[in-house]
Amino acid sequence: MSSETLLEEFEVLEAIYPTELTKLSERDIRIDVEPEERSDGGEEFSLALEVHYSDEYPDALPDLSLEATSGSLDDEEIAHLIREAQKVGEENLGMAMTFTLVSHLREQLSLLVYSREERRRKEAAEKERLAIEAEEARTRGTPVTLESFNAWKLKFEKEMTAKRSREEEEKLKGLSPKEREEYKRLGTRLSGRQLFERDKNLAIMDESLNDEDAVSVDISQYDRTVVEEEETEQLTFSDSD
């Protein structure tokens, strides 16, 4: 490309980007690039695109380099933006392409901003979901199954047995040998339930014995009315009385 043709493109670019374009040399320019749409409360990004035009331009791609001037972009993100710009440049070989390259970069930078914000929203939503699940698990506790209940019951009974043994030992330590012996003797007595069960069994045995040794009794022999009538008949009165 002749210098005159390149100067014409520079004049057009200067009219489009009056504050963004800086001419570095006869074949090098720098253009500040920002996203098409600004982030609403998110991170702000801006790039500096440097373009070097070879003698074969526009039949050959210009050399492109990018530098982040605002916001943080890693090397992979910058390399991705350059590759995308080069694809667009290959589609426009043979014609002035700088304006097209800058417009495409602005679109790609907007997509990058949007993808970052979307990723942050998803991470925040996932963090909130995990926090809710953790709180629900804390308040809900562990689901009880037959196996877990039996394991808990066995552990609880062992703990209670050990606790009673410790309490028994502590109680015996404060007793004299005689009191200790008396305490142990009282401890072997039957409980109230055991006594009740034993008395109930004895009552059943007494009933069976009564059935076997029962004696028939004529209750009429003890009828007071009959006795009184018999006594009245035995009494006689004379006229002299």
TrEMBL record:
Residues 8-112 form the RWD domain. This is RWD domain-containing protein 1. It comes from Grifola frondosa (Maitake). It holds the Pfam family RWD. SUPFAM superfamilies: UBC-like. SMART domains: RWD. Transmembrane segments: none annotated.
